Automatic annotation (TrEMBL):
<dbReference type="Pfam" id="PF11953">
    <property type="entry name" value="DUF3470"/>
</dbReference>
<dbReference type="InterPro" id="IPR017896">
    <property type="entry name" value="4Fe4S_Fe-S-bd"/>
</dbReference>
<dbReference type="InterPro" id="IPR017900">
    <property type="entry name" value="4Fe4S_Fe_S_CS"/>
</dbReference>
<dbReference type="GO" id="GO:0051538">
    <property type="term" value="F:3 iron, 4 sulfur cluster binding"/>
</dbReference>
<dbReference type="InterPro" id="IPR022569">
    <property type="entry name" value="Fd_C"/>
</dbReference>
<keyword id="KW-0004">4Fe-4S</keyword>
<protein>
    <recommendedName>
        <fullName>Ferredoxin</fullName>
    </recommendedName>
</protein>
<dbReference type="Pfam" id="PF12838">
    <property type="entry name" value="Fer4_7"/>
</dbReference>
<feature type="domain" description="4Fe-4S ferredoxin-type">
    <location>
        <begin position="1"/>
        <end position="30"/>
    </location>
</feature>
<keyword id="KW-0411">Iron-sulfur</keyword>
<feature type="domain" description="4Fe-4S ferredoxin-type">
    <location>
        <begin position="31"/>
        <end position="60"/>
    </location>
</feature>
<keyword id="KW-0479">Metal-binding</keyword>
<keyword id="KW-0249">Electron transport</keyword>
<keyword id="KW-0677">Repeat</keyword>
<dbReference type="GO" id="GO:0051539">
    <property type="term" value="F:4 iron, 4 sulfur cluster binding"/>
</dbReference>
<dbReference type="InterPro" id="IPR054829">
    <property type="entry name" value="FdxA"/>
</dbReference>
<dbReference type="GO" id="GO:0009055">
    <property type="term" value="F:electron transfer activity"/>
</dbReference>
């Protein structure tokens, strides 16, 4: 099993989760993070660290969020690893309350 970054991370990109990951499985996109399922050890330490509540265990994904398993798996090999916390995106607090943000990205799944 792996953990999955979902819609709530898009256009926010809080990186609190990165600091606690013992295996550096987070990958950084321009407006989001993903978890590399081949690197994740299912430790769950990232879940409580995410201020946007964007991370779930694969088996606990909310209904309708299953697409994010594919999103993480497809994008992880193409993105650089992030190992240190960075500032969130400038308008992260505004985007934090918005849902269904995947449609705003130009990514074919």
């Amino acid at each position: 099993m792996t953990h999955v970054v979902t819609d709530a991370c898009i256009r926010c990109k809080y990186t609190d989760c990165v600091d606690v990951c013992p295996v550096d499985c987070f990958k950084e996109g321009p407006e989001y993070l993903v978890i590399d399922p081949d690197e994740c050890i299912d430790c769950a330490v990232c879940i409580p660290e995410c201020p946007a509540n964007a991370i779930y265990a694969e088996d606990d994904l909310p209904k309708g969020m299953e697409i994010f398993l594919q999103f993480n798996k497809k994008l992880a090999p193409t993105l650089p690893t992030i190992t240190k916390r960075k500032a969130a995106l400038p308008d992260a607090e505004q985007w934090r309350v918005v849902s269904h943000k995947l449609s705003g990205l130009n990514i074919a799944l």
